Amino acid sequence: MSSLDLINVVKRFGELTVIDGVDLDITEGEFVVFVGPSGCGKSTLLRMIAGLEEISSGELRIAGNRMNETPPAKRNIAMVFQSYALYPHMNVERNLGFALETARLPAAEIRERVTKAARFLQIDHLLDRRPAQLSGGQQQRVAIGRALVRQQKLFLFDEPLSNLDADLRMEMRVEIARIHREMKATTVYVTHDQMEAMTLADRIVVLKEGRIAQAGTPMELYERPANRFVASFIGSPRMNFLPGTLTQDGEESVLTLFGTPHRLPAHDYAGEVTVGIRPEDLILGGGEVTLTADVLLVEPLGGEALVHLNVEDGRSIVVKVQGKPDIRPGATTSVGWNHTRANLFDKDERALSRKGA
Ligand SMILES: Nc1ncnc2c1ncn2[C@@H]1O[C@H](COP(=O)(O)OP(=O)(O)O)[C@@H](O)[C@H]1O
Ligand SMILES: [Mg+2]
What percent of the chain is helix, strand and coil (3-state, nearest 5)? Predict the structure, then answer.
């Protein structure tokens, strides 16, 4: 069943269009992540779902019902923000239960829900403390707990982990994945961190300037980015890009890179292209297409290493290799890739597909 539908949703602030016709169906229980650079409209879209921002045109449906005019409190949504917005003068127990007090639930019911959420989030030993007496991670757990006790069907998160340091972010990411696995609530989660998106999402929606650049599973976006924007946004270190020209020759295409032609399976396109290859798909000293390269820098990361190279036109590219490569800065080497690992983009930065594919 569809739990949330966005139909040609637009948001304007005066003359400025910040959400420009978003269409999206989210199914019940799905974990959807909105990702994109700062300012692309993630928070605005989420706030429209929550009812905190009016929808300029288009329609929002929750469980099949139009919600455009429905006030936030009646949308059956729980939202967690980047700033925890805990009540400083209340202890954890009252912070957790406050929304239920306001909704006039019986005291016994409130106590039961608060106890259960606190145990679930492992903050049950902190119930008497005030927010100022908690670490950042503990405060974030309380903020999530406040959403949990409301037992809503739809969870919205806006960059909930951005204020935490790297270790805690990882820990809370695992925690949020666990909450979703156990509660199975439909979740829409906003982040600018592609790694968070990759690890948490059933489906990622990449936003660019208020439009969906691509929506799909993490692996779909990683393996078959629809355009250069998604290709460079998803994956770290990011995909390498090289300029080339594609011409047709009977049943084959010819890709010319730095003056050298390479035969490829046929594509339905001729003209300028960009070739994109992920760092882990580049092969030092091998590949079906090869270039000569100068070694700039080797960064050992322990189990793997990043090798920075300058290729023919002086452009730098990054190769990810397992272990520690036997190669030194200043050396000349060759680097290449196999055809199936190359992404080709046309002059409008859209991914090309193979003929017949
Ligand atoms: N209340 C507002 N009035 C005018 N412009 C706004 C308002 N809120 C957000 N914007 C603009 O809308 C765009 C998208 O903002 P936002 O949704 O916060 O982006 P993100 O969360 O992806 O960083 C930005 O250009 C921002 O400046
Ligand atoms: Mg934002």
Answer: 30, 40, 35
| Region(s) of the chain under CATH 3.40.50.300 | 4-232
pLDDT at 85: 84
Measured from the Cα of 45, ligand 1's closest atom is: 17
Domain 4-232 CATH assignment equals 3.40.50.10490: no
Confidence category of residue 1, pLDDT binned at 50, 70, 90: low
User: For ligand 1, atom 4, which residue shows the shortest CA distance?
Assistant: 13
Question: How far, in Å, from the CA of 84 to the mean position of ligand 2?
Answer: 14
Q: How many whole angstroms separate alpha carbon 187 and alpha carbon 329?
A: 47
Atom of ligand 1 nearest to the CA of 53: 1
Nearest to residue 90, comparing CAs of 130, 55, 44?
130
| Residue 291, beta-bridge partner list | 335
Dist CA 151 CA 356 (whole Å): 49
Residue 13 — very low, low, confident or very high, per pLDDT cuts 50/70/90? very high
- Other beta carbons less than 10 A from residue 348's beta carbon: 7
Band (213; pLDDT cuts 50, 70, 90): very high
Q: Is 124 helix (H, G, I), strand (E, B) or coil?
A: helix
* CATH 3.30.465.10 at 237-345, yes or no: no
The arithmetic mean of pLDDT across residues 144-171, rounded, is 89
Atom of ligand 1 nearest to the CA of 190: 21
pLDDT above 60 for 357: no
Choose one of 16, 18, 46 to mutate for the ligand 1 pocket test, by most ligand atoms within 8 angstroms of C-beta: 18
Q: Where in the chain is the domain with CATH 2.40.50.140?
A: 237-345
Q: Which own/partner contact pairs does 321-324 have at CB distance under 8 Å and 24+ positions apart? A: 321/284, 324/300
